[in-house]
Amino acid sequence: MANKGPAYGMSRDVQSKIEKKYDDELEDRLVEWIVAQCGAAVGRPERGRLGFQVWLKNGIVLSRLVNSLYPDGSKPVKIPDAPPTMVFKQMEQIAQFLKAAEDYGVVKTDIFQTVDLFEAKDMAAVQRTLMALGSLAVTKNDGHYHGDPNWFMKKAQEHKREFTESQLKEGKNIIGLQMGTNKGASQAGMSYGRPRQIIS
């Protein structure tokens, strides 16, 4: 990993805008959920963006989180006995979490890039991914979610309707108001002034 100097000009403006998107209250809620989901063994981070980043950086906490959403025997991420210390191993662990989160159902657009977490480039994106994962876990309601269900929004689910043939035929006879109607519409009696006089 290359050493990075301070950002100037437009780069600094862009980075400060990204950092302003980080939500401290959301961080508290996510920490509560991760501890409830994985158990107290994962510990707690220091408050703030940097503490949250350091806590998740090696990928072990994230891997335990996504594994806890699956039944025993089908855990998607292999967790090493000792936390990885080499940079590429830590990044690989984060990449495994991202793959497992996508397989769980998190949309690609909600998933952060490895460098967003590892180099703390966009911690708000990390929060969005964890929010999407929590929302899916609450929506699935398969017994693997632990914590307060009100912490996350439930995703909309399909509400399929079945109609009989007679109901479908009946619907063809009704003209919806948004389609308009021509009942009583006529141009009879309308005048637009005198006709044009053509003199030859």
Question: What does this molecule look like?
Answer:
This protein is mainly alpha-helical. About 45% of the residues lie in helices and about 0% in strands. The longest helix has 18 residues, at about 85-105. The relative contact order is 0.11. The mean pLDDT is about 80.
Supply the helix-strand structural class.
mainly alpha
What is the element string, with H for helices and E for strands? HHHHHHHH
Distance, first to last CA: 90 Å
Q: Rough shape?
A: elongated
Please state the average pLDDT score: 82
Q: Care to count the β-strands?
A: 0
User: Can you tell me the residue ranges where pLDDT is under 50 for at least 5 consecutive residues?
Assistant: none
Helical percentage? 40-55%
What is the number of helical segments per DSSP (H or I, 4+ residues)? Answer: 8
Beta strand %: under 5%
Let me know the largest β-sheet: none
Structural Rg: 28 Å
